[in-house]
Structure formats: C-alpha cells, structure tokens
Design a protein that fits this description.
Elements (H helix, E strand, L loop, with lengths): L1 E8 L6 E13 L2 E11 L9 H12 L12 H17 L8 H6 L11 E13 L1 H12 L2 H7 L4 H16 L4 H10 L3 H5 L8 H13 L1 H16 L5 E10 L24 E9 L4 E8 L8 H5 L9 E4 L6 H9 L3 E5 L13 E4 L5 E8 L5 E6 L1 H29 L8 H14 L1 H4 L2 E7 L6 E8 L12 E6 L6 H24 L10 H26 L7 H8 L3 E9 L4 E7 L4 H10 L9 E4 L1
Parallel strand pairs: 5-8, 8-9
Antiparallel strand pairs: 1-2, 2-3, 4-16, 5-6, 6-7, 9-15, 10-11, 11-12, 12-15, 13-14, 16-17, 17-18
Helix pairs in contact: 1-2, 4-6, 4-17, 6-7, 6-9, 6-17, 9-17, 10-17, 13-14
C-alpha cells in the first residue's frame, strides 16, 4: 500500500494540478496488479516523507493490529490514517447489505453472522453521535427539505453542508466554526447522508448559510405548507414578537449592529433584532432581521404587509407593539387582533366577572367592558399574578421609604445634608428609581425661614385609583373580536406565552446567542439557521406531545444523544480482521421516542467487513 501522485489538467482551462491516490499492489496469477483503494483528492498536503508511515498505519488499522508508534508520522498523519481506514471499511462490500444471490457469488472469505474470533482482540473505535442526527434528519425528510433545496438549484455538496448547518444547530448549538469541528470529529451525520464532512472546508458551511438565507422566503413558505399538511391546522392566528441577540466583538462591519435595549442585559455589546410571525400552532410564518435599536411598533407593517394571511385572521401581540397607529393599520388591512392594552387605568369588580379554568387548573376571573371604539376590554385577574404584583409593590415601597428615612435621618445629624437643592435632587432620583411605588406617596418638604435649608420631611401613602397596586393581579386585553366569549379570547391571548417559550428555545437551545460574524449576510444567515432548526424541533416535539411526551428540546436532545455509532474490530484465528460498525442500542426512553416517530433503533444499519 502506498501513496501515488498523478499529474492532470483541468477540463476548462487546461491548468495542470496534482491528484493523490492510495494504491494497493497485489499478485494476480503471474502478474502484479495495482489498484486504487481511495482517491485522496487534490488537496492532500501531508509531507512526502510521511507517506510510507501513513500507508503502513492505515494497513495496521485495517488488519486490526495494535499500531506501532512511528516517529516519522505526525499527529495530523495519524488522524488521516484513522479517517482513511474508516473510509476503506465503509467502501468495502458488507455482508449485511447484500442479497442472498449476491452472497452466493461473493468471496467465501466475506464475514457471515458467525465468526471464530479472539475476544481479547476486541477494539472499539471511531465513536460518533448518531441519535440526535437520526431524529433531525428524519423530520427534515418528512418535510421534504432536501428535495426543496434541490429544486432551488443547490447541488449535493451544498445540500449536505446546509443539512450539516441545521442539524448541528439542533444537536450541538454554536457558531458555524463550532459546527464544522463537530461534524468532522464527533458526529455520524456524514454516514447517514453519504457525505464526507471530514474533507469539507469550513467555507462551504458559510456558503451554505448564504444560500439558505438567499432562499429564505421560498423555504419558509415550503416548510409552513408542509406543517399544515402534516398536522392539518388552518392559518387563522398570527403571533408576533421580537427578541435580540448580542455580538461578540464590536461588529463594526455589520450595518444592523446597533446599541439598544438588550433582553439579556448586555448593554456592553451591539445588538441585532430578530422578529418572527408565527401561526397559532407555533410554526414560523416569516422571520426578519432588524437593527439592534429597532423600535418594536415600527416593525409590524414591514413584517405583516406581505404575509398573505387570510381575510379576518387574528393577530396576537403584547403592549410594546400595540400602538394606536398599528391597531388602526391592522383594522384597515382586515385583521382582527387580541392585544395587551396600553391603558394605564385598571378596573375590576369580582361581582361582575366570569371564571375561566387555565390548563393548570387555575381559576382566572374576567370582567368584560366595551370602549368608545367598540373594542371589547377584558380585565383579567390571575391569582399568580396578584402574588407577583404584591411582592413587587412591597419591594418598591420598601425601597422608596428607605430613601425617605435616610433623608430624614440626615436632617438630625450635624453634618447631615439639609440643603434644599440636594434634598430635592435625591428625592427626584428616588422617585425615578421607584416610580411604581412613588406615585402613591405625597411627600412634604418643610423649609426654614431662609428657604435654603430643610427642617422636616413627611409623607403619606394613598393608593392611586386604577393603578396596579389598587388592583393587583389585573391586566387588560383589548380585542376587535367582540362576538367571542371571554374564555375563547383569553385562551387566544395565552398563545403569546407559547411564543415567548419559542424565543427562549431559539436563544438557549438553538444557538441564537451570541453572534460572532462580522458581515451582514453571515449574521442574517446565522439567525436564519436557528429559525430553520426551530421549525424541525417544533415538528418533532408536536408529534411526541401528541403521544404524551412533552419534554423540552434540551431534555430530548440529552436523551437522544446517548446513542453512538461505533466500529468493533476483532481478530480471526487466520489472522484476518472483522470490522462491524453499528449504532449502540438505544436506552428505554430513547427507544420509546423511536417507536412513536417510527425511527429505526439502528440508524445507519450494520456494516460488516472482513479485511
């Protein structure tokens, strides 16, 4: 076995270049025959002096021998030897994958089910994760994703790189750089799709990200239509919200990287905003990337303007986006809406309220009124929210009173602050910091005869009518769907809570944060990969939820990740080596998931080779 270099020319320009092959010499009859075992490509860059040691190491791995440490072979050379040996084993015919007729004509030396082997020679090599990859790939094919990419003009390597990007985001969230290392060193995805990720350049992942983002509209339309077909839901409700993610680095080359209000409190980093419109079932209908300082109300028209939702569809959103201008625009476009009202004043009379049971068997009380524009106003009282409101109000009131007491204590000290200007400044800062509590206090500052010194500070507390403290646990919903009953309207609004969990999944489970890219298209491509990954995760979770498994994706991923694909190598009595590559047996909970989804317990099948 040796390495051969051959000179050839490109078909287009005729430019010369070198190709490399792993060649084996064997004697057939009275003649010596050389045959190519593996094409190493034109980018094989191992130094010439390591070639003999590389060939010898590959042969030792194939024969199942304990490899001898050769000082002339570098660490990269040893890694290549393991990679090429694994490829040679995979390329050889497997007795587990041929028909009976083919087996009758095959070499009698090929391994059958029963072999006499030396158990002490057992060696387990090349463990690669396969459980999450198998589940992700299955749901992708259920949605016809690879076929859609082919229709959009992507070739086989581009499709493989796109699939690798998305499956990597589902199984091992991180940057494209981290995904590249995971695909090459830890995952068996390449075996499942018949692609050698170890030979793939990192730039191919970046270009696949560009291609996915280029076709984002077609891909989102296709996947949403597939979700409607699989689950049979109708498009009637649109949930809309925004989140943001931060950059590592200054992102000076990214036009949308702006300072803004970070939902992760990362005020030290530039941000970029992701807006999503989802159907009531939770599937993404459209996504869009905005600048990090984008105003939430200003994004609505741009997102929903070309959505093509049916006439009379309902939009659900929170108070941050529900401006009067946006509500007027929604009515003009024929949309209905259920929104959190921006009205500051609250009111609630338990005697006039009706009761609704939440999914957690909690009683929600709802009082309905009509406003001057014909909207239904639903004042909803939640016991859990009441506890939260009371705790917040108590903490804010305690903080504000602590400042007042400190100011009073300073008046009695010889060197304490008594200056009117300073006292009023500190009082103003306290009112700003504890605004929620300060609105209920009437503070009196008594000055001396000169008007420059403070003699006394007194206060009284009286709850402001219509405030959260007067009606703890009460919030107001505003809707144009006046014909629907209170229970239906409240449950429609609670879908927004599920949307918030979607964003949590994107940010924590699917690698949305942080962003390392410094180019606009790469930033948007990175975010779009997470959106695509979420679609497949949500498809899988809904299918499991229908059968009683309501685990988060993080829990499901940990369960599926226990399965590995491993090669077992054993020596026969005649000195030949048997290689068996297959997946480990799934754990009980993993097996139940496979049964529900109809997945094979042995992804990739069993491959037996005799060398």
């Amino acid at each position: 076995m040796f390495i051969r270099r051959s000179q050839t020319r490109t078909r287009t320009s005729g430019e010369p270049y070198s190709t490399y092959r792993l060649v084996q010499t064997s004697r057939v009859g009275g003649a010596v025959k050389q045959s190519t075992l593996l094409n190493l490509g034109s980018h094989f860059d191992l130094p010439n002096e390591e070639w003999p040691a590389l060939a010898m190491h590959i042969d030792e791995l194939l024969q199942g021998q304990k490899p001898l440490l050769d000082a002339t072979l570098s660490e990269r050379g040893r890694a290549l030897a393991h990679r090429y040996a694994a490829q040679l084993i995979a390329l050889r015919p497997s007795a587990a994958s041929i028909t009976r007729a083919e087996a009758a004509m095959a070499d009698p030396g090929e391994p059958g089910r029963f072999q006499e082997v030396d158990l002490d020679s057992l060696d387990l090599v090349r463990p690669r994760s396969v459980g999450v990859e198998h589940a992700a790939l299955s749901v992708m094919r259920q949605c016809g994703f690879e076929d859609q990419l082919a229709e959009l003009g992507l070739n086989r390597p581009q499709i493989a790189a796109a699939v690798g990007n998305i499956v990597g985001r589902m199984a091992h969230p991180g940057s494209e750089l981290a995904t590249h290392a995971w695909l090459q060193q830890r995952s068996a995805l390449g075996e499942l799709i018949g692609f050698d990720f170890e030979a793939m350049d990192l730039n191919r992942l970046y270009r696949a990200s560009d291609a996915l983002y280029k076709h984002r509209e077609a891909l989102q339309d296709h996947l949403f239509a597939q979700a409607q077909t699989i689950f049979g839901f109708g498009e009637t409700i649109t949930l809309y919200d925004l989140t943001n993610t931060y950059f590592e680095g200054m992102a000076v080359g990214v036009s949308k990287a702006k300072r803004g209000h970070s939902k992760e409190c990362r005020s030290d980093c530039p941000l970029v905003t992701l807006a999503m419109a989802l159907d009531g079932s939770g599937f993404p209908r459209r996504s869009r990337v905005f600048a990090g300082n984008a105003s939430e109300p200003a994004t609505l028209k741009e997102m929903l303007g070309g959505l093509g939702a049916p006439s009379g569809a309902t939009v659900v959103m929170d108070a941050g986006i529900a401006t009067e201008a946006n509500l007027t625009w929604l009515r003009a476009q024929g949309y209905h809406y259920v929104v959190v009202s921006r009205l500051r004043e609250r009111q609630f009379d338990p005697a006039l309220a009706t009761e609704v049971q939440s999914a957690g068997r909690v009683t929600i009380k709802i009082q309905r009124l009509l406003d001057e524009q014909g909207h239904a106003l639903l004042y909803c009282h939640s016991p859990a929210r009441e506890q939260k409101d009371r705790a917040i109000d108590a903490a804010k009131a305690a903080g504000f009173e602590a400042v007042l007491l400190k100011l009073v204590a300073g008046l009695g000290k010889p060197r304490g602050t008594k200056d009117v200007a300073k006292i009023m400044e500190r009082l103003g800062r306290a009112k700003q910091r504890y605004a929620r509590a300060a609105q209920h206090y009437q503070v009196e500052v008594t000055k001396d005869d000169t008007g420059t010194q403070v003699r006394a500070i007194t206060w009284t507390k009286r709850l402001r009518p219509g405030s959260a403290a007067m009606h703890p646990g009460v919030y107001c919903l505003r809707t144009t769907l006046v014909a629907l009953d209170n229970a239906t309207l409240w449950r429609t609004y609670t879908m927004l809570t599920d949307l918030e969990s979607v964003f949590r999944s994107l940010k924590t489970d699917l690698g949305l944060r942080p962003v390392f890219h410094q180019i606009d298209r790469r930033v948007e491509g990175h975010l779009f990969i997470s959106v695509l990954a979420y679609h497949f995760v949500h498809t899988l979770r809904l299918q499991l939820k229908a059968q009683g498994i309501d685990d988060s994706w993080e829990t499901l991923r940990e369960t599926l990740a226990t399965q590995r694909r491993v090669t077992a190598t054993l020596q026969r009595r005649d000195g030949r080596a048997v290689h068996v590559r297959k997946a480990t047996r799934p754990e009980p909970h993993h097996q139940r998931i496979n049964e529900i989804l109809g997945h094979s317990p042995n992804p990739g099948g069993t491959h037996r080779v005799l060398v």
